[in-house]
Amino acid sequence: MTSFKNTIYRHRADAAMSIMVFIWGFHFIVLKDGLETLPPLAYNALRFLIGLPVMIGMVLHNPDLLKLSRRDLAVVVLLAMTGSVLFQALQLMGLQRTTATNSSLFVATMPAWTALLCILAGSVALHRRLVTGVAITLAGVALVILGKSSSGLSLTSDDLLGSGMILVAAVALGATNMLKEPLVNRLGSMRVAVWSYWATVAGLVVLAAPELITLSGDHLVQTLPNLLYSGLLAGTGGALSLTYAIGVLGPTRASSYFNFPPVVAALGGILLLGEPFTLPLLIGGCLTLLGVITVRRNTFIRLPAVEATRESCHELQPESVHTIAR
């Protein structure tokens, strides 16, 4: 029984991100339906506002989460602006200028950018199998997206501008995930998640202010189920799970889970919308799974202090505590 409990504890972050994969995957369908009634910026701001009481409740339960130095607060706010807020804004502006296929493909590059930036920063050791795993995963996700699309890639001038915006958004989010790891390890995942979420809400509300002013009550009532799913499950749940996973798994492994939502979204389209099951979807899904497994088994990360202490109890050499194959 003790061994079983230890196994569950060791893989708790993977379990949380696996659950989020399905929530984020089906979120594409919920989001598409909600955006038929509400404008994009207003929808994003409202869904994050709906998740705000959860974060306030966490602080009321544990007031220590409010303890943050001015310097750390400035860093958290900056990361929230360059991560969540900038990503949401650039993704929406880019989507207005290009196709959904182009948008999905460039967003899917985010885990690869996270891995590359971590390698350059020295927090992940360069390994041939790691690079191969990232490449296989990208190929799998591309197959799923292109296999589902009837239009394929589009390369007009507007498409290139929109795709460029989304690519910048993906790189910014990847960099944020990498830079957040030492902060999470030092301050704790919940404290960083709470303050990051509040900063994200503030930024998104400011951006969406012109759209929010013009909304009617009927629009809000009509999209309330969508907003609850997007805000509480995909938004708040995603923020808490990702921040926690970055601290436990490292940014490369945590970000690798972002490859699965397009696969789940495609499966959701088959089950809920009656879309056809295609060979590219099957092959792409298998490649995505193979690539993520390869990345997971060949990523070297700097362990958080808690896990490093736990590993040292198993008589690891001192120098092996800092970087260990997971």
How is this structure best described in words?
This protein has 326 residues and is mostly helical. It has one domain (2-325). 78% of the residues lie in helices and 1% in strands. It has 16 helices and two strands. A two-stranded antiparallel sheet has the order 1-2. α4 runs antiparallel to α10. It starts with a helix and ends with a strand. Residues 300-326 have low confidence and may be disordered.
Morphology: globular
Number of strands: 2
- Going across the major beta sheet, what is the strand order? 1-2
Global structural class: mainly alpha
Q: Which stretches of 5+ consecutive residues score pLDDT under 50?
A: 300-326
- The succession of helices and strands, N to C, reads HHHHHHHHHHHHHHHEHE
Please give the count of helices.
Answer: 16
Instruction: Indicate the percent of residues in helices.
Output: over 70%
Percentage of residues in strands: under 5%
Taking all Cα atoms into account, the compactness measure Rg is 20 Å
Biggest sheet layout: 2 strands, antiparallel
Give the end-to-end Cα distance, rounded to a whole number of Å: 23 Å
Q: What is the domain total for the residues?
A: 1
State the main characteristics.
326 residues, mainly alpha, two-stranded antiparallel sheet, 78% helix, globular, disordered C terminus
Summarize the SSE layout with pairings.
Elements: H1 2-10, H2 12-34, H3 40-50, H4 52-61, H5 70-95, H6 100-107, H7 110-121, H8 128-148, H9 157-187, H10 189-213, H11 217-222, H12 224-249, H13 251-256, H14 261-273, H15 279-297, E1 300-301, H16 305-312, E2 324-325
Antiparallel strand pairs: 1-2
Helix pairs in contact: 2-12, 2-14, 3-10, 3-12, 4-10, 5-9, 5-10, 6-9, 7-9, 8-15, 9-10, 9-12, 10-12
